[in-house]
Write a structure and sequence with these properties.
The chain is an alpha/beta fold and 241 residues long. Helix content is 44%, strand content 20%. The structure holds S-adenosylmethionine (SAM). One of its GO terms (biological process) is methylation.
């Protein structure tokens, strides 16, 4: 009897860790504008799980040897730019965000870095000349974009030939375990001001599956690209020909 229970328990654990869940796509708000939500997101961004995600992102970025001018689209309060400025001091960095409020927070957070410039703009209409950037990156922002396809076309316009993009985001088909953790932990640790705007569960539901991101990029001029999945995240990389 004990063995049956142990075997069933092992099967249950394997299922929640390995079986992927796919829930219906539910778009979320485009920009974080509310001042108290910006403050709460800024605090959340300093927590170890967010620092760990930035670590995962930087490891992947290193593989693509970034150089020249790099724009972080949807930079939020700027913590990734902070890491990039110290890990890749040779880069000229641009922080872009659609929210005036959060961009002001990023400016405040990064006053000590002279090589970072900020622009208020949406991913679908970047204030840069054609063929002017070497790299476009973005973390945890793609699921907010109202026009993802137009945004990838815009990246193609602003990137120089051989320029690359690397996008990191949640994926809407994570293992059941992650989905359960989000549902259980969110109400316990996330500030009310964020749960009121449906974060962070809303972000998971608004995110795309790797197959959906591939379909979006296929409809743009990028011909060399790859979408990879991690435990609960995805990476989309591409290069302009
Ligand atoms: C969840 S935050 C992520 C911030 C930061 N990149 C990070 O990893 O913590 C999403 C950010 O994307 C911005 N955003 C949403 N839609 C955008 C768009 N279409 N273009 C540029 N920024 C956008 C929001 O204002 C917000 O600052």
């Amino acid at each position: 009897m004990v063995w049956v229970i142990v075997i069933l328990a092992v099967i249950a654990v394997v299922c929640v860790v390995s079986i992927e869940i796919k829930v219906r796509h539910k778009p979320s708000l485009e920009g974080i504008e509310d001042a108290s939500a910006v403050k709460a997101y800024d605090r959340l961004s300093q927590m170890p799980q967010f620092a760990a995600m930035r670590g995962i992102f930087v490891n992947e970025l290193k593989r693509h040897n970034p150089s020249g001018i790099l724009a972080d689209v949807g930079c939020g309060p700027g913590y990734l730019l902070n890491v990039l400025a110290s890990r890749f001091p040779h880069l000229n960095l641009l922080g872009v965000d659609i929210s005036r409020e959060i961009l002001a927070k990023a400016r405040d957070n990064l006053t000590s870095f002279a090589n970072i410039d900020f622009k208020l703009a949406g991913s679908q209409g970047l204030p840069f000349a054609a063929n002017s950037l070497d790299f476009v990156v973005s973390t945890l922002s793609l699921h907010h974009w109202s026009e993802p396809s137009a945004s990838f076309r815009e990246f193609h316009r602003v990137l120089r030939p051989e320029g690359q993009f690397l996008i990191f985001d949640l994926r809407r088909n994570p293992p059941i375990l992650f989905h359960l953790l989000m549902r259980v932990i969110t109400p316990l640790v996330v500030p009310r001001v964020l749960t009121r705007i449906a974060e962070p569960l809303g972000s998971l539901l608004a995110s795309f599956t790797p197959a959906e991101v591939e379909d979006i990029i296929k409809g743009t001029p990028f011909r060399e690209f790859e979408v990879k999945k991690g435990f609960f995240w995805l990476f989309a990389w591409g290069r302009k020909g």
